[in-house]
Amino acid sequence: MTKTAFGFPLKHSHIKTKLAASLGGGAETTTTITSMKFSVKTWSNGKARTGLLQLGNCPSPIETPSLLLSTRKGLPLFISPDLLPSLPLPDSYLLQFSPLHFLEGLSTKTIAAIGGLHQMLGLHDYVYAAVLRDPIQCLPECDASNKFGASFETPCGRVLVKPADYMDMIASMKPNIWASLADEVPAWVSSKRNRTSVDRTVKWLDECIALGSAKAAGGALFGAIVGGSNIEERKRCAQEAAIRNVSGYWIGGFGLGESMDERPALLNAVTVSFKLTRVLFKNTDYFECFIFKAKGEWLFYCVRLEIHAACWMNRVVTVVCIVGSEVMIEVRDAGCQDSLQEEKPRLVCGLELPEEVLQGVAAGIDLFDSSKDATPIVQNCVCYTCQNHTKAYINHLLNVHEMLAQTLLEIHNTHHFLGFFRSIREAIKEGRFDLFRQMFVQHRREQLAAVAVCA
Ligand SMILES: [Zn+2]
């Protein structure tokens, strides 16, 4: 029995320690690099799921699926720190930024001296997720990327970011969550270029892991998954990320020219579907159960029951809970051997419209980067804007190009979109996600048609 590399999804640190001890050393292979905790709570209609994300500094756990508010230099656009608490909490605790926003201005050294982004902005309760790409200002420029690093078009011009540069930024800014460096390509590149993009992304993931521990970067590393519009490449990249020591997955390469119709297959290729069986072992000393990964296979071994590795080949086995002397095990028939571990959060970038978000939720995505929603001011809205100002007043502000208009609209839109995510979570919990999605898409189609008629 090979006693190596167990990047297994055990939830109990207790059993983890015992296991490591029993296997003789190697206890540090699954060192927790972060205080992030994530657990899946409910499933609905296949892969749509709700979960709970907990981060050390955040006062309350955050339910997923959830939205990361996009920011410029750590603050949501048009919303000043004093207005931030007017957004619904805890939903609005998640903020996303690109380290490239800081190219102009403060150096990484200065930010490091201040103690990171939370310290610098005084937002100690908020959760920062660092992703280099941002949908408006920092776009990947695949023609200029090379084997040394990824290129981005930024307000400061074109920048080539090497893994070492990137890890300097992460180590100084200290985000709670960060995605590894990725070579993102648009949908129309050649299959050769797409393959190169996966090779580089995997190589950079290894470099980010190594540099991250060398620089004591901290934070939860989300392994980048790319692969453009090619299902096999998507799978390959997901498998590579799944066997590495990451806390979650960042799924990139979307919103770059692929069609909405081909997206579900691409998302599902990454979040492979599972057939789930739960097995309860009674009167089993969990100390005698081993779950580990050897030669690319998930293996389960229980001394007392004499269930050995061969019986469980090609299955993903997860310890669900341990109560007294009982062990609950989940066995999943996986389409591929190295599928993404269920108990790690998945963050996707580039799905912006509500319909696209629903595609992601249906494929089992937990976190989304900011979205564009042109929903008009609605009736009965309880946001700060609608409670305090009339539509006419906001229209007036827009007409005279007053910046307050943007602030008020931003508050309303954010409120509205966080509410959308809340409805998604409720639908999943009640087991009616598919129906919710159908109704929503139909309703929006009618709404858009009505707007088009009026225009
Ligand atoms: Zn409102």
Question: What do these coordinates show?
Answer:
The chain is an alpha/beta fold. The chain has 3 domains: 35-273 and 340-368, TIM Barrel, CATH 3.20.20; 276-333, no CATH class; 384-454, no CATH class. It has helices spanning 13-22, 108-114, 117-121, 163-173, 191-214, 231-242, 263-270, 354-362, 384-388, 391-399, 403-429, 433-454; strands at residues 37-44, 48-54, 62-64, 66-67, 69-72, 75-76, 94-97, 127-130, 139-140, 150-154, 157-161, 177-179, 220-225, 248-251, 274-281, 289-294, 297-302, 315-323, 326-334, 346-348, 367-368. The strands form 5 sheets. It has a 10-stranded mixed β-sheet. It has a 3-stranded antiparallel β-sheet with strand order 1-2-3. A 3-stranded antiparallel β-sheet has the order 9-10-11. β18 and β19 (326-334) form a beta hairpin. α4 (163-173) packs across α5 (191-214). The longest helix is centred in the C-terminal third of the chain and has 27 residues, at 403-429. The relative contact order is 0.14. Residues 1-33, 273-278, 282-288, 292-299, 303-314 and 334-338 have low confidence and may be disordered.
Question: Notable features of this structure?
Answer:
single chain, 455 residues, alpha/beta, TIM Barrel, ten-stranded mixed sheet, three-stranded antiparallel sheet, 12 helices, 22% strand, globular, disordered N terminus, binds zinc ion, TGT-like_sf, cytoplasm, Queuine tRNA-ribosyltransferase accessory subunit 2, tRNA-guanosine(34) queuine transglycosylase activity
